[in-house]
Amino acid sequence: MLTAEQRMPQGTEAGVHLYAHVRCNDAATCAFFGHVDKAAPTTLTSKPNGNVRRASLYDLTFPALGRLLIEDGLNVVHTSALWKALYRSGGIARERLETFSPPLRRWIKAQFGDDAGFLSEMPDVITNIASSDGLTRKFLLRLGDGQTIETVVMGYTGRVTACVSTQAGCAMGCVFCATGQMGFSRHLLPGEIVAQVLHARDAVVQQGHGLRNLVLMGMGEPLHNYDAVLTALEIISDTRGINIGPAKITISTVGVVPGILRLAEEKRGYGLAVSLHGATDAERYALVPAGKRWPLDELIAACRTYCTRTGRRIFFEWTLIEGTNDTPAQARTLGELLAGIDAHVNLIPLNPTGGFTGGATSLAAATGFQHMLKAAGIPSTVRQRRGIDVAAGCGQLRTGREKSAV
Question: Which domain holds residue 297?
Fold first, then answer.
């Protein structure tokens, strides 16, 4: 029987390599992310106690879990029972071993424990903070290696949405975003993304609701961690488990062109949201440094390709900053930029962060901006502000501080 470490490529300095990368289609993209020609591994550092982070079953899709059992000499029919325990029964730790068949029971006993090969635990909840709006709750979670991430649950009329993180920190450096201000630590593994959804689902169920929608708009750039994110979404959308359908899932990106084109090729069925914030390169560079790698002409061309190949609408995110990008002229330029694209613009009044001095636009300016887009034939929505008092709003997520739990 192979150990978990033997099944995974080994790194150096007690690190475990898991491949989570954006496919590089050009030298500039590779240089930006520090990639070589082949898939570049993300090295996960050891835990504070010196132990390497062991593999998690939550990293595996249903077919991959079946292959794992076959490698260990079990019949593939046991996959369904194990999957149900992970995603329908609250995890292996809560499932009575007597409910499993004898071969699967022996395998579980051999694989789990302090000195065994696999993990099945969820991240620790450090804080659980409710907003005064009564509809938003933010969780600070500690991962196995000590990194921390934030996850938000938001209630709306008739639905509940979870906003999850895909990286610890972010390399994109958007100047008004708290996560961008904290810098990049590492990519999250598939199971670490899945675990946030399971945690959000449990919290929502305890309140008598169901988790219906998922947005990848938390900490990090999802398309910078493409493979891990898409693996996680395959697990999350699997009808035998969590079962949040692709149509209820939205991937947000600052405009990583290779990732957008790859989504267009693969036609996964997930929604796409693209953060613009500026309708000219100069204005966008000032707010979104990653725009220097993918200028607007390349980004908009990729968006047109995406719409053509998938037949899906793109949501464009626009953070309204007073005196910076909220004028009628800028709205007119944006309308011209998006002409011919099946687009919907989400207008988001700036949420405050400690590292940016700009302020939110006025309601009058937001309304005027929206009217200019309407005149250009571009539908738009001024987004509701949620969780601002607990720094759970769009662009406010960051770690490194802890608050009292509720």
Answer: 124-390
